[in-house]
Amino acid sequence: VHQSKLDFFCKLGYGKQDICKVLENLGQEALEDDVLKELIRMGRKPQALESQAQPSSLKLVARGSCNTSPGLKWLDEDDSDSSNHLRPIVIDGSNVAMSHGNKEVFSCWGIQLAVDWFRERGHRYIKVFVPLWRKEPPRQDSPIADQHILEHLEKQSILVYTPSRKVKGKRVVCYDDRYIVKVAYEKDGVIVSNDHYRDLQNENPEWKWFIEQRLLMYSFVSNRFMPPDDPLGRHGPTLSNFLSKKPVLPEPKWQPCPYGKKCTYGNKCKFYHPEKPHQAQLSVADELRAKIGVPLSLGKEAEKHNCLP
Q: Where in the numbering of this chain does the C3H1-type domain appear (predicted)?
């Protein structure tokens, strides 16, 4: 048990000496939550965070250099979810492109605007799903604008084509919405689309809850990608908390007492009094005893004695 706990907190980045010291104080059967609270109370930080705080020497690499190992790219893509506090983003490329093209043209520029918006916020995992037949030359019944953007995003490993083929001259297209919801559900991310996916909601109850809670709708205003500040309504989380794995709760705003210094409720008053910022919540009787100088323990014993039959 000691070794398993030691390995667990070492993976989190804490030092062995600190972990052993906490386990000696709390006992070997202490819960992991209690050990973590004690480490935080001691002011210890994981070694990974301490190394990030120290200035690291930057290494300049020439553009087009092949010195970087190819495995680093895949490692960064897989581990970006755990190291980053922002949720993964899965974009419905067809929905975004048609919305930017006013439902008449498949505008690839709209996809680029959405990707750039999430990049600027710091999201590392961004995936765009588009049917494979969109790589074909544009036709009159399916016009495409700025098609070169799709190739550019594909080279960056951002855009993913869903399968499609032709059988006896007829195009067979796989359901790209299923890819979008499935990847977002497995990654515990956010779906960017104005589609409600009602057929997939009826198909899987877990997907139904996920789509209702993790669907981020948007609008294009003068070539500007604009998601709402309240994705789940006026009483729901803010956009920052919606896109974050660890939401930040707002600080409580204390309402000042309308009676001010004339308030007679004392410390029982639920409103804020600036003249007594750190006063403990005492009863009126304890307040009077404190003013007279009688110890609180004697006063409580007298009350118990008076209550006896």
A: 251-276
